[in-house]
From TrEMBL:
EC numbers for this chain: 5.3.1.23
Site (Transition state stabilizer): 164
NCBIfam families: eIF-2B_rel (TIGR00524), PRK05720.1 (NF004326), salvage_mtnA (TIGR00512)
Protein role: Catalyzes the interconversion of methylthioribose-1-phosphate (MTR-1-P) into methylthioribulose-1-phosphate (MTRu-1-P).
Any GO molecular function: S-methyl-5-thioribose-1-phosphate isomerase activity
UniProt name for this protein: Methylthioribose-1-phosphate isomerase
Family that this chain belongs to: Belongs to the EIF-2B alpha/beta/delta subunits family. MtnA subfamily.
Species, as recorded: Roseibium salinum
Pfam families tied to this protein: IF-2B
Gene3D superfamilies membership: translation initiation factor eif-2b, domain 1, Translation initiation factor eif-2b, domain 2
Top-rank taxon, per record: Bacteria
Catalytic activity, reaction form: 5-(methylsulfanyl)-alpha-D-ribose 1-phosphate = 5-(methylsulfanyl)-D-ribulose 1-phosphate
Length: 368
């Protein structure tokens, strides 16, 4: 995507050929900064502290982390240690496991002296594949938006509500939930996006709004709890979110608060779509609520908030009553029964085992 007229991915091999550069997402929305990863430990840190985030980008960063480890030490022990360390960084997004499993299975068959080069090629391939997948998701999702646009009066936009950031900052490029929005906007369809702030890390207010603004897409940031009200009053035409892990039966795990949006959409008879690349599907799981591990993050993300003062200073303040305990589950699971459709690179699928298995038979065989 473009930032001030310059084309960017979220992660790329640096010009020195020995390090990896990322857009540091902890600096948004107040600064656009590039960080450099020199070691596997740097990559693990970037995932853990959310300099990079979003399931597809976490997977791509992990692949580059393995490549950096192989450059330092291409032995079998180093490969195993790197995969183990990176796997511990964040538990919910299945793309992390998928990328590391792919890297290990590929590199263990390569002689140690060739592993570094092979690992960087693989990481780049994973990035290129992610972009192609997201472009396909965008085209399939745009068909849905186009159909809704035909029902609108002239000059009336398609109003889309999204939650968290499933934009290009969560992937290598294009995004998942936002790819259809960008393509519809670029094709001349009038769209407007309701952007949930997405507490406690404010990925909607900080990241999605920043993305849409720089691309020129009309949008409005709203409090997380405003979505149901807007749906009741006819100001939302559809909901699109991303997902960090999807079960074989179509349950979707996404940023905390997604489940409530799905419930409101069902009550208001509005379509609730989830955009996902196939590596996000975990065919080994059937019951998302019982089987998907939910990351519990630090309570300080809830009890403290960072913002820019009128003087321009960036400050962090406490917002919770002293002494109150704080919980911070980072994700929730939306059952398949609440999902209108899954927008994948192979089309819009039903949120059920049969549709997913028929669309991705090769993935089913691998997980069996």
């Amino acid at each position: 995507m473009n930032v001030d007229g310059k084309k960017y991915r979220t992660i790329w091999l640096a010009a020195d050929g020995a390090s990896v550069e990322i857009i540091d997402q902890t600096k948004f929305p107040y600064a656009f900064e590039i960080a450099k990863l020199h070691t596997m430990e740097d990559a693990a840190h970037a995932i853990r502290v959310m300099q990079v985030r979003g399931a597809p980008l976490i997977g791509a960063t992990a692949a580059y982390g393995v490549a950096l480890a192989m450059r330092a030490d291409p032995s079998d022990a180093s490969l195993d240690a790197a995969c183990s360390a990176l796997l511990q960084t964040r538990p919910t997004a299945v793309n992390l496991y998928w990328a590391l499993d792919r890297a290990r299975k590929t590199l263990i068959q390569v002689a140690p002296e060739g592993r570094a080069d092979a690992a960087f090629v693989l990481a780049n391939d994973i990035c290129d594949e992610d972009i192609a997948i997201n472009m396909a998701i965008g085209m399939h999702g745009m068909d849905i938006i186009t159909a809704i646009a035909r029902t609108k009066r002239e000059g009336e936009p398609v109003n889309i509500l999204t939650h968290c950031n499933a934009g290009w900052l969560a992937t290598v490029d294009w995004g998942t939930a936002t790819a259809p929005v960008y393509m519809a906007h670029d094709s001349g369809i009038q769209v407007h996006v309701w952007v949930d702030e997405t507490r406690p890390r404010n990925q909607g207010a900080f990241l999605t709004a920043w993305e849409l603004g720089h691309h020129g897409v009309p949008h409005t940031v709203i409090a997380d709890n405003a979505g149901g009200h807007l749906m009741q009053h006819g100001e939302v035409d559809m909901v699109i979110t991303g997902t960090d892990r999807t079960t074989a039966t179509g349950d979707v795990c996404n940023k905390i608060g997604t489940y409530l949006k799905a419930l409101a959409a069902r009550d208001c008879d509005l379509p609730f779509y989830v955009a996902l690349p196939s590596p996000t599907i975990d065919f080994s799981l059937s019951d998302g609520i019982r089987e998907i591990p939910i990351e519990e993050r630090s309570g300080t993300e809830v009890s403290r908030m960072t913002g820019r003062t009128d003087s321009g200073a960036i400050e962090t303040i406490n917002i919770v009553a002293d002494g109150s305990p704080v919980g911070n589950p980072a994700f929730d699971v939306t059952p398949a029964r609440l999902v209108t459709g899954l927008i994948t690179e192979r089309g819009v699928l039903g949120a059920n085992r049969q549709s997913l298995a028929e669309a991705f038979p090769e993935r089913v065989r691998v997980s069996a």
